[in-house]
Amino acid sequence: MTGTPGTLVLAGTPIGDMADAPPRLAQELAVADVVAAEDTRRLRRLTQALGVQPAGRVVSYFEGNEAARTPELVEALAGGARVLLVTDAGMPSVSDPGYRLVAAAVEKDIKVTAVPGPSAVLTALALSGLPVDRFCFEGFLPRKAGERLSRLRDVADERRTLVYFEAPHRLDDTLAAMAEVFGAERRAAVCRELTKTYEEVKRGPLGELAAWAAEGVRGEITVVVEGAADKGAEELDATELVRRVQVREEAGERRKEAIAAVAAEAGIPKRDVFDAVVAAKNAARSAP
């Protein structure tokens, strides 16, 4: 090592299928002076799958020792070391250890670069079927019910698509809270075990997804939720709602699907559109 500062490399790792590992990952593992891993046992499985043996020192870097180990790694970087940071899955610092080390390195004017890799956030967003032009990542919600509801209320009017991580044993409570705050008709997608053998994407209104999750769900979970409707848009009266449903029915859609689509467009519960359609039908029957 020299007096020239080294480089911190943030490396994305597969979120499921080891074949998704970027080619550069094996190269960086082979040349890094220090490999900081969230779980050294998982790192061992990864290196075996890639057929590479780390040449440098391997140390653990996880939530429990992140604060204590960061100064040690910064010292190594300042001395010219190439430090490779990997987490269990996905990109370091995205709901995983890494931010503290990046901030410390940046403060010391140490170069920070990345080996792009799989991301559960972008993969789930792309598969959700929801708008992808604007989105925000909200990470994990608080475990306590009151704090969770408060956090959700903070973004109740957010128009961008929302992306969350969640533990499987808390998924039903989270979806129920989302249905309460955002509305049971707000569209969402639960992405489970992405890129793995039992990958599943369950799409539907939050109310239906909450009922589905109550039966128990396993695996790594990413939840994508549709943004709020534009409150600045002109409110549609019952006549216009009925007209839009009729247009869709004439185009070949079933009434149930037409009502759901119009409700989603207007940002209102399906029940409101259904009631308007029924009232118009009854009025037509009673007309002379």
Features:
single chain, 288 residues, alpha/beta, five-stranded mixed beta sheet
Q: What is the 3D form? A: elongated
Number of strand elements:
10
Described by strand count, sense and barrel closure, the largest sheet is:
5 strands, parallel
Secondary-structure class: alpha/beta
Q: Span between N and C termini?
A: 94 Å
Strand content of the residues, in percent? 15-25%
Low-pLDDT segments, ≥5 res: none
Secondary-structure element series: EHEHEHEHEHEHEHEEHEHHH
Quick synopsis:
By secondary structure, the chain is α/β, with parallel strands linked by helices. The protein is 43% helix and 18% strand.
Mind explaining what this structure looks like?
The protein is α/β, with parallel strands linked by helices and 288 residues long. 43% of the residues lie in helices and 18% in strands. It has eleven helices and ten strands. It has helices at residues 23-31, 40-50, 66-78, 99-107, 120-128, 145-154, 171-182, 206-213, 238-250, 255-266, 270-286; strands at residues 7-11, 34-37, 57-60, 82-86, 111-115, 135-140, 161-166, 187-192, 200-205, 221-225. The longest helix is centred in the last third of the chain and has 17 residues, at 270-286. The mean pLDDT is 92.
